[in-house]
Structures are given as C-alpha cells and as structure tokens.
C-alpha cells in the first residue's frame, strides 16, 4: 500500500504542475508586468501587419503566418522578391528586442537592426548590424567559421560559446541597443557586448567585409529586419519567428 503522505505529496505536485501550465503565458502576448514596462508586440500571432519586405509595400509571398508564428518557406526557383528580408514598418533607436526562432536543418538567417530603408541600398545588411542565426553544425560554412555562428555579431565579433539549440528547436534572442551599447543574448546567455561608433568600432568595421559599404552601422535609428534572403539549408528552407516584442529605451 502506498503511504497516504506519498499520495498527498504526489497530488500536491500534480496540482502545482497543472496550475503552472494554466498560468503559462501564451505565445505572442504581453503579461501585465510587460505592459507596465512599456513592451509592445511586433507580431500578434495572426497576421503580418506591421511588416513588409525590404523596398516593397507588402511582405513577399514566401512569408506567411502559420500556427502562431511568422514562417518563411522558400524554394530555389522562387523569385527573389518573394523571400526578400522582412522589415518592421516602424523604426527604432534605443530598444530592448526579444524574439524566438527555429529553423529547418542547416538554414541560415539573422536579425538586423538600425536598417535604413532606401533605394540607395540594395540589401538590409548594407546598413544594419546582424545577430546571426545558423544551425549548430551543418550551416556551411557559417557554423564552422568564427564570427558567423549563431549569436555572433556577423563578421565582426564572435561569441565565446554557442548557446544554440539544434534545428527544429526554439531559440530565444534578445538584442539591447542603448546609445550604441549593444548586447546580444542567446537562450538567456550574454554572447556579445560591444559599443558602436567608437574609434575601435570603426577599426573593426574597416577590417571586415562591411568596409565596402560606407554607411554600414552608421544610422542611430532604423528598422528591425528578419533575414530571408540566405539560400542555405535543406529544401524547402523554413524559418519560424514568434514572440517578437520590443521596449523602447
């Protein structure tokens, strides 16, 4: 016979689990504390309102909403306009941005900020610094190159450890930009901490491929961008984003 105290403890634990599940925050929502702190949703889980493809009036055809997430699903022969990078309608200067993402195996993407949208620039990355998204092992060559792995400040600064989950699992990103002080967090771990626009920063950019674009990372405000133009990964290439929220600083 199972002692009554064991039964009681088991029921208590079960009750706590059920209660916790009942009170777990739904995706693409803000709780009372977040609302009080000034957080705003950049994705409501139902539509692509507030987003468009770079230099286009609306999202490209390969971007859609599926099961409460922004989904990019692309194939090699799709027109470039269909998977052009998604950018926020609004622009942001100093902010705290949080989002979750997952990918199909070996895919490649990134989250950019301070993107300046103008016909002068063909691509988002000509102006916007990028927090890299890459599979842990099989995004070639990115996952095997320092400064190009998930969580890195792409082509500029590499994180010490890859705190990234395998393909198919959700990952959490946080980007804090506060008067040029930029910090990246991947799955709760700080991976990048740097200061933009200093002499050291300018030297760092000068020794990277971004030296070819003189306006790279020069804007203090701009759009948030989800990269869809990379062609790495198993076909069809799939990327999901959800729980995208931002607080102006």
UniProtKB/TrEMBL annotation:
Residues 38-247 form the 3-keto-alpha-glucoside-1,2-lyase/3-keto-2-hydroxy-glucal hydratase domain. It comes from Dyella flagellata. One of its GO terms (molecular function) is hydrolase activity. Keywords: Hydrolase, Signal. This is Glycosyl hydrolase. The keyword Hydrolase applies. Pfam families: 3keto-disac_hyd. Residues 1-24 form the signal peptide.
